Amino acid sequence: EAGVVQSPRYKIIEKKQPVAFWCNPISGHNTLYWYLQNLGQGPELLIRYENEEAVDDSQLPKDRFSAERLKGVDSTLKIQPAELGDSAVYLCASSLVAGRYNEQFFGPGTRLTVL
Amino acid sequence: SQKIEQNSEALNIQEGKTATLTCNYTNYSPAYLQWYRQDPGRGPVFLLLIRENEKEKRKERLKVTFDTTLKQSLFHITASQPADSATYLCAGGGGYNKLIFGAGTRLAVHP
After folding, report:
1. How far B14 CA sits from the closest chain A CA (Å)?
2. Residue-wise pLDDT tens for chain A (115 aa)?
3. A76 CA: distance to closest CA in chain B (Å)
4. Which of B49, B89, B98 lies closest to A42 in CB terms?
5. Domain map of chain B by residue range?
6. Which band of pLDDT confidence, cut at 50, 70 and 90, is reported for residue B97?
7. Which domains does chain A possess?
8. What is the architecture of the domain spanning B3-110?
9. Which residues, in sequence order, are CB contacts of A10 under 8 Å at separation 6+?
10. Separation CA A68–CA A53 (nearest Å)
11. Does residue B3 belong to the interface with chain A, where contact is any CB pair within 8 Å?
């Protein structure tokens, strides 16, 4: 069974440029998460989707970040414009349903460097 | 704010010994705790889940405890091997499957 797929794996951009990350969750997983992980820290939730609906985006900086999950399958996270402080690893995860106790399956992440 | 705290210092142990990692939570009471393993350059991988009404959970060489009085979980790896070297993340379950992660503890097992 294929795991969570993310692309690109690495991205280097200059500040003020836009950037987009793509995620394809495990087939059949209704819940999709985007996390941000800074060096030496644990993942921090940015947004959670139940099918097409963003049910928790309270931690998403909406002035520059946006996300979509059309058709309730794959998802895109965008930053426009990027700032130096956005350099981090962006992780996508999915789970079967959003109930309690369900483990989350993570992709390898996209490492973003903003110069 | 709700916090999950783990030892920031790396844990170095000898192969064959038991590794014990600590996770403390503050300002909330998680209904469950999950433990993940993360290798460099990779996403976290789920290892174990323990509910608040469970004292202990085991899986092969792994054991996790949940002490609601101390607000603490301990994660044990028995008969540790160099292949167990990684960062281990503790995550507290909040409402509706929202996870709050600790910063992780790096474990190094030396031959």
Report:
1. 24
2. 689 999 999 999 999 999 999 999 999 999 999 999 999 999 999 999 999 999 999 899 999 999 999 888 999 999 999 999 999 999 999 998 766 678 899 999 999 999 9
3. 18
4. B89
5. 3-110
6. low
7. 5-97 (2.60.40.10)
8. Sandwich (2.60)
9. A110, A111, A113
10. 9
11. no
Residues 64-93, chain A, touching B (beta carbon < 8 A): 91, 93
> pLDDT of B17-30, one tens digit each?
999 999 999 998 99
**CA dist., res. A3 & res. A9, Å (int):** 15
What is the share, in percent, of chain A residues with pLDDT greater than 90?
Answer: 84
CA–CA distances in Å: residue A15 to residues A80, A91, A95, B50: 10, 21, 33, 43
Q: Cβ contacts (< 8 Å) between B42 and chain A: which residues?
A: 108-109
Residues B66-78 pLDDT 10s: 999 999 999 999 9
A55, A56, A103: residue with CB nearest B49: A103
Chain A with chain B: Cβ pairs closer than 8 A: 59
Contact A44 B101 (CB under 8 A): yes
CB of A108 closer than 8 Å to CB of A15: no
Q: What is the dihedral of CA B37, B44, A111, A107, to 10 degrees?
A: 150
